[in-house]
Design goal:
alpha/beta; 17 strands
Length: 723
Amino acid sequence: MTSATHPSSFPHVPESADDVLAGLDPEQRAVATALHGPVCVLAGAGTGKTRALTHRIAYGVRTDRFQPTSVLAVTFTNRAAGEMRGRLRQLGAGGVQARTFHSAALRQLQYFWPKAVGGALPRLVERKAQLVAEAGAGCGIRLDRNQLRDATGEIEWAKVTQTVPGDYAESVAKSQREAPRDPAELAQIYARYEQLKRDRGVIDFEDVLLLTIGILQDRRDIADHVRSQYQHFVVDEYQDVSPLQQRLLELWLGDRDSLCVVGDASQTIYSFTGATPEHLLNFRVRHPEATVVKLVRDYRSTPQIVHLANGLLSQARGRAADHRLKLVSQRDTGPEPQHVEYGDEPSEAEGTARRIRDLVAAGVPAGEIAVLFRTNGQSGLYEQALTDAGVPYQLRGAERFFERREVREAQSALRGAARFGGNDAALDLADDLSSQVRAVLSASGWSAQPPVGSGASRDRWESLAALARLADDFGAARPGASLADFVSELDERAASQHAPTVQGVTLASLHAAKGLEWDAVFLVGLTEGMMPITYARTDEQLEEERRLLYVGITRARFRLTLSWSLSRAPGGRAHRVPSRFLKDLRGAPATKGASSVSGTGAGGAAKARLGPRKPVRCRTCNRSLNDAGEMKLMRCETCPSDMDEGVYERLHTWRAAEAERLGQPSYCVFTDKTLMAIAELMPEDEPELIRIAGVGTRKFRRWGADVLAICAGQEGGGGADES
């Protein structure tokens, strides 16, 4: 079996061009050796498309068919581009440009702007939200946070589909797009936004593509210059190309046909940004002579997961569905996907966290587990539940690895040790690269054992632990490598954003999970109204939701759990139903998840039999509470607070000292909302304190005496050591 996943971090560079082809399956080899004319690769999830692509480029370079600097590989995220550059370097094809559309266009725009327009390129606005807010205000329209995000998204969609403000309303109607507000108002905001940019002499990311296109169209000499540099093009995730990106690609190509595109129409999930699979589906119409290769051998997922994914797509309709690929798993058999039903959302989060805690205890690395949801707003419950369960996590889309402060400081320390380490006694005692790196990291406060709990201190530890593991892999692959060699490797990885794996359960939206994979995946919140999302009404919108779930399912290698809850809040009416997409996919009845937060095993089951928890109501106006923050306070955010400010301040000071003593972030002791609830309710005994959301029996055992003492006007002690 040829595996397409879990490659060695530092494989040996192939000695010859033929060695580049070693280990590829017949279809991957067909891609790698198709070096002439247009090539279309239809690649299903987990079939090793990146492997096939990078080996094709490397084979072309190693056989002298391609000059490295004449190849431009384009993908859609900096992470994917960085991974591609890293793989090409390991295959002996360094020097190949692998970039996003925006990154490649920006480099060209910066280079040619003085010649084409004159002067310096206008400043790039990386985040347009503030400018959109000002545009709204200029039109007499106040936008709250969600409305601002929606308006910004609409402007981006309009620009990538090459729609000007005056045509926006008509384009929305023609495309059956569900505008988040009156299209006439959005057109006003869009027009005002463009005017503000002109007045201030700034451009946005979409302008980068538009301006590059304009220069290439208007200046034949510049277009010829670009085409003389790049003769061979590779486009990954071609199903996600927008009309604007397609136009730029056509201008780069000119009248040539040295183009290889890779995609899967069944993974088109970004139509809201202007992406369309039509360019992929019409590729053979535009290029009748194209070589077409299908990759369907799935090396990622077990037969059970692949069967579920194929079953989901078998119900799909529409043009993309007509071109679906039926995957064939190449892995050994695994456990059946689990379907779990919970009484309410908090129970679903807590039950998921318990299952994850059990997996970690059984030896599954936290970094090989993911919780995926439809919207980012669902993450809060899972962050809290994993924190309460003592499981580290990381939010997908957070700060880039090499931009983290602790990583930058560690790189600086390693660089200094590589230069001047001869005077360091600790390094004298280290006899190999791994121990040298650990000695440097230890001098910066890192220890081999992780801190208790999660949060900032655990995040910092995980970042440095990732560097330590990378040193292990590098030392094993390059016997005799020095600390200076490792520093050079880190520098190259930082330049290409080729980050090592950080250990921590990943929390991500289904959209953000595209292109990633884990041993165990939990797909949560799979109810009607969330999957498919409420505003998906047309047939095509519903089919895109199906494809989004397909992407989520195919992220899992070995274990897959799909779950939903019958109500939003504890004690709420059980009116929800599982997603329509799960119909006919469940081979066995859904497991009933416990509706109680407490316990597992017999004790937990006994508590679950007590029935659903009572609804949480505001203690001031008696309204039923659904928001997690309001449930902690046991009142509406808008209802008046009767908090004892002095008690709150003492609790805040005590919590800071306790967190410092334990080396944990403050919220791992109690969140701000929990402290506010304590200062408002002023509990006098154990039952009153335990009833406050965010306390519970475990935290009471640890800190209850201190908290009750502070509420009684006494000084809190140092807390218990029990974890």
